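WP5 quarterly update. Target: AMP deaminase. Source organism: Rhipicephalus zambeziensis. Length: 224 aa.
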Amino acid sequence: MAVEKPMDFPYVNLPQFINDLNLMCAMIADGPLKSFCYRRLSYLTSKFQLHVLLNELRELAAQKAVPHRDFYNIRKVDTHVHAASCMNQKHLLRFIKKMMKMHSEDHVFKQGDKLMTLEEVWRMEWVYAKQYGCFSRGFDQEFDGKVFSAMNITAYDLSVDMLDVHADRNTFHRFDKFNTKYNPVGESRLREIFLKTDNYIGGQYFAEILKEVMSDLEESKYQN
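Structure tokens (predicted):
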């Protein structure tokens, strides 16, 4: 690919794009079409449940008969992958715990003129959570690192449930809730430190966890 040379990809013209967009919006807002789609999806759901009741045990037996293939190492196709969500929640939890144990004194965040270590950032969240019953979500007061050390809270306190980065059924049609799942423990400051490149440490932690994910994928062929 030549540098700074535009690629000659085919695309529709603006009037055609606008016509297609208007048609799509009209279909989305059409009442009878919504009713038809709802009934159709309900029918397909019931049909699938019937299939499960009739064939579940037979399919489980067939799956067990296939060597070296399960849900985690079959071929998968995903055309919309975010690097920030390529790891599972357990992997992210292990990585955060490891960084807190091995690099707790590293300066990872700058708040105003004050540099904060990883331990200070995390204990700031805990101080605020214990006082107000929730995490800070952008709390901007100045804190003294000695206060956090006195809390005696370590990486041991972290859990998958506390991390809360798994998108569940409550995020359906709720992009606002889905977007918060990218914030470990609901805190954008931790997202900036661990899952972004434009931060004080230049994306060091993000690069390290991506390398771990890639290494795991290379060791297990086809794993997604």
